[in-house]
């Protein structure tokens, strides 16, 4: 009786901790994006990435044992990069009024401001169910909700307190809309218009106009 070949692992094996390892993983992500943009998703393979990246296939497998594991790692990378960008440009600056913090947050989360953020293709969202279990979705939700919480805690000049339940509802409304706008492949003008309306709604909630 023939034994079935083991299915490819769809999760990254480890996270880089040292500077050199982080640089290697970033180079892998950059090559992944470059091949996708140039040749399409179907032409991506671990061998092609290793060859173009200038690393051994075994080195790539130390982190990503398959194409789908790399995809999973890249999605995680996108979320972490967004959170870091919000932290640096929305939370940490001290001299911002609450309106400006909300504006910057919405520009980033809605996808209007992409400077410094990883490239994202609609197919990434379509492939997500193949690599993301419920626990991964829950973790992303929790981390993004906490990000929103840090933004509002940084708003020391709010006209009134905003409850944790309201902050979570705003996060879900914006993030759900962002994901759907990606699936619809809305144009830049449409995304800007939607982001403007979401900002207006968020400001209305803060001001007490629910």
List the helices and strands and how they pair.
Elements: H1 19-39, H2 46-53, H3 57-63, H4 67-91, H5 98-109, H6 122-127, H7 134-154, H8 164-184, H9 188-207
Helix pairs in contact: 1-2, 2-3, 4-5, 4-7, 5-7, 5-9, 7-8, 8-9
Description of the structure:
The protein has nine helices and no strands. It is mainly α. The protein folds into two domains: 8-65, Orthogonal Bundle (Arc Repressor Mutant, subunit A), CATH 1.10.10; 69-207, Tetracycline Repressor, domain 2. Helix 1 (19-39) crosses helix 2. It starts with 18 loop residues before the first helix and ends with a helix. The mean pLDDT is 90.
Keywords:
Tetracycline Repressor, domain 2; mainly alpha; single chain; Arc Repressor Mutant, subunit A; 210 residues; 9 helices; 2 domains
The helix-and-strand class reads mainly alpha
The rounded Rg comes to 19 Å
**What is the β-strand count?**
0
The whole-number mean of residue pLDDT values reads 90
How many domains in all? 2
Provide a short characterization of the protein structure:
With 210 residues, the chain is mainly alpha-helical. It has 9 helices and no strands.
């Amino acid at each position: 009786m023939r034994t079935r070949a083991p299915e490819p692992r769809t999760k990254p094996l480890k996270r880089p901790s040292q500077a050199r390892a982080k640089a290697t993983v970033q180079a892998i992500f950059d090559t992944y994006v470059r091949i996708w943009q140039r040749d399409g998703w179907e032409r991506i393979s671990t061998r092609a990435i290793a060859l173009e990246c200038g690393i051994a296939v075994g080195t790539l497998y130390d982190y990503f044992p398959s194409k789908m594991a790399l995809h999973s790692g890249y999605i995680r990378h996108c979320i972490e990069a967004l959170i870091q960008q919000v932290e640096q440009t929305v939370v940490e600056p001290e001299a911002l009024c609450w309106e400006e913090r909300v504006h910057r947050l919405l520009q980033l989360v809605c996808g209007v401001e992409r400077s410094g953020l990883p490239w994202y293709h609609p197919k990434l969202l379509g492939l997500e169910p193949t690599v993301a279990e419920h626990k991964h979705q829950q973790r992303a939700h929790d981390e993004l909700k906490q990000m929103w919480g840090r933004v509002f805690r940084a708003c020391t000049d709010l006209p009134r307190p905003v409850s944790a339940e309201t902050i979570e509802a705003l996060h879900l409304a914006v993030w759900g809309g962002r994901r759907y706008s990606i699936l619809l492949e809305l144009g830049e003008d449409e995304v800007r218009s939607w982001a403007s309306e979401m900002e207006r709604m968020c400001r209305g909630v803060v001001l007490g106009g629910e």
